[in-house]
Amino acid sequence: MIDTLLSGQLLFAALVTGSLYALIALGLNLVYGTMRMLNVAHGDVVMLGAYAAFWAFTLMGLSPLLAGPVVALMGAGLGVLLYRGVFRRLLAGVTPSTAGKIEGNSLLLFFGLSILMQNIAALAFTPNNRAYAALGEVYRIGGVAMTGNRLAALLVAGGCSIAAALFLSRSVAGLAMRAVIERREAASIVGVDVDRVQGLSFAVGFGSAALAGVLMSMLEQFSPFSGFPFTIAGFIVIILGGLGNVTGGLLAALLLGVIEVYGVALTSANLRSVLLYGTFVAALLIFPNGLIARRVMAR
Amino acid sequence: MTALLKVQGIGKRFGGLIALTDVSFEVPAGAIVGVMGANGAGKTTLFSLIAGNARPTTGDIQFAGQSIVGLRPDQVCRLGVARTFQIVKPFAAMTVRENLRTAAMFGHALHRTARAADTATEPVLEEVGLAAVADQPASTLTLSGQKRLEIARAIATGGRLVMLDEVMAGLTPTEVTQMLDTVRHLHSSRGLTLLVIEHVMRALMDLCERIVVLHHGQLIADGRPEDIGRDSQVLAVYFGGTR
Amino acid sequence: MASTASDRSFAALTAAGALVVVALPFLGNDYVVGVGLTVLMWLALTPSWCVLSRLTGYVSLGQVVFYGLGAYLVVVTWQAVPLWLAIPAAGLLAATFAALVGGPALRVRGPYFVILTFGLAELVKFSIMAYEAASGMAARILFGAPDLMVIYWLMAVLAGMSLLLLTWVSGSRFGHGLRSLRENEEAAETLGVPVERYKLLAFVLSAAIPGMVGAVMALRSTYFVVGQVFDPMVSVTVIAMALIGGGDNARGPVLGVLFLALLSELLWAQAPLLYMIILGAILVVFVLLVPDGVIGLARRLRRAETLA
């Protein structure tokens, strides 16, 4: 038992899971940061990305590594379309006082969208599980057996997440994005093109979700209803890491990967969902505002 | 005669920020006392502490001889303390009458039925000038109307101490005069005790028989309006020295 | 204040409905009674949900957890505890769960409360699944369950209770306090409403009847699979029905339930996916365009008429 726990194998698994969660949470964070609405349908974009990679591989023989960037771009395009078509108008009309009322309802709206996406996909693709085998060669690094697909997932997801975090903290565009996330009205006053930043957030948000789907499709079997657990995982990560905080999300994602992998190893596979939802409920109850406590202004 | 409200050595810190330090003053029953100070001086924090929306870090607050520190806002209200909010918080989807109904049912007056509550709030609607819009949703009121609603709700609780937080803000000079009349009338007809935060100097000096001045969370003056206008500390803070 | 004309027509509708409920078992075959049972079930579940979520604005996406807990209690105590004891006990179990969880849960606001309730329901589901798996139970079967008519009458009683509960709360001082805290919680508390106590009470009240509904429905299927009983779509359907109806008294749920239950009867057997798609579309359309439901729409139209 101890051998298994201390093995590099388990650590590798935790890192792979964690990096996937980090990529998913990144998108959720950016979309939330811009809209201040929780996109419950985020995991379903992941699911669509998985299907895209699946069809690319089985119909065109395209390797997921090549399909990845293409699907990501398609996801980004979808994000921009949704922003321009629906959300730009919705966001423009919201004031701080109406925001609270809309927030609760908006969750139902996204839930409805999620149900629509899942069932339309089920109608189009059949509800059956899908899987395919790609990049299955085994590499031995440091005594740990890593399949090509897991390694690729770790490198791509991890790399993108870290790159995004660096982009946000180091670049000027990233600074603009962080400003909009922090306080939209103030950002626009100091000259930030809020519209462009919001559009970019949607693009990166949806694109990264689609990319995560491509990576996920290499590792697990999936169905039209697989998206939801990823949404939940994404929520856990952004709540633990701080809403809108991408760097915090990276750390929280790793933590969740560790909890999940090591938790299942210590107990049993049956408890995977219990651990996931248990962490979720605990996170929300301990951080009831969902936000890292900000400095309070006294009058 | 014991004061209706006694604030003793009140201090409040939010993490590293100290909002109030060692503030003490008394409000006799039936008085109109003003609270003056620049933005950030701690005025609204003071109201929040008295009403129970926040808890003081140090010190005691006594209402009618009873300590009210640590009580929940609804408990403080039932004892007889009511406040308005500087940023108005109407029950937007409810009518004006229904807004007052809540106050009359759950405040100090504790009316048990809607009918009893509505009967009790009818005169309040008249006095505050909202009778014409009584059955319209609160969201349709103008800012002036919503400020009146805040006052009406506080009055409708039936409380003895009513705390008004910048009810003149954003009003035109004519509206300010009207509001002053309304407040004075409410005070005398109902035998209320008023604690008033105000930035509009004319209103403050006109209305109050006594003013306390806060600066950076500390009480720097406490006296009649004329004396406050001559106090060297107040002048130093507001004008940078004697005229 | 609604006009007496619409009050009268709703009273007439209710009386007619009650007549149908009573007459159905004598007039129809098992299939018709089954449909009636389904409608009664939703009529029992939805108004209870409204007591919390419509009146306080704390939208719960986890209503099914009370249903499932009630069902589980009956299944686990089958043959050991008589039904006349187990069914009320199921309601009590659900209410107790709500009382324990409600305190911390209701401190969470807005959309976070929505996903929290969802997460809680799923957590309870997976925990029971893990426990059943660990004890070696794949599914449970109940032998000797009472027949359809008994279940039908039990559900009719529960539906009546639920509608009465919502009507009573909606018109009471308690209900006015709930509405006030829905509009602005801080202002309500400052005006004397004991917000925490009221929220918790609403939560507990919203749990009791669904617990008993779950208990009764467990008898109907006699075959208990945890994953199916704790189906999140039950929670979503309740919300959709309340959303379609609108308002915060008993009228909305009745309209919404009738519409959606009949729609699902038409589609479920032939095209379940299509039904789900319509359900999703209803959520989207109603939240975006008709957030106060049919009742709210009617009220707005009436107001526009009187002003014109």
Structure description:
The complex is a heterotrimer of chains A (299), B (243) and C (308). Chain A contains 12 helices and 2 strands, in the order αααααββααααααα. Chain A is mainly alpha-helical. Chain A has a single domain, classed as ABC transporter involved in vitamin B12 uptake, BtuC (Orthogonal Bundle). Chain B has one domain (5-239): Rossmann fold. The longest helix of chain B is centred in the C-terminal third of the chain and has 18 residues, at 173-190. The radius of gyration of chain B is 18 Å and the shape is globular. By secondary structure, chain C is mainly α. Helices cover 81% and strands 1% of the residues of chain C. Chain C has helices spanning 4-27, 30-56, 64-76, 83-105, 110-134, 148-171, 173-183, 185-190, 195-221, 226-229, 232-245, 251-268, 272-289, 293-307; strands at 140-141, 223-224. Chain C has a two-stranded antiparallel sheet. The two termini of chain C are 19 Å apart. At the A-C interface, helix 5 and helix 12 of A face helix 5, helix 11 and helix 13 of C.
* The CATH architecture of chain B: 3-Layer(aba) Sandwich
Radius of gyration of chain B: 18 Å
Q: What's the structural domain tally of chain C? A: 1
Shape of chain C: globular
The whole-number mean of residue pLDDT values of chain B reads 90
The average pLDDT of chain C is: 88
Give the helix proportion of chain B (percent range). Answer: 25-40%
Question: Separation of termini of chain C?
Answer: 19 Å
Strand composition percent of chain C: under 5%
Q: What is the SS-derived class of chain C?
A: mainly alpha
CATH-defined topology of chain B: Rossmann fold
Let me know the largest β-sheet of chain C: 2 strands, antiparallel
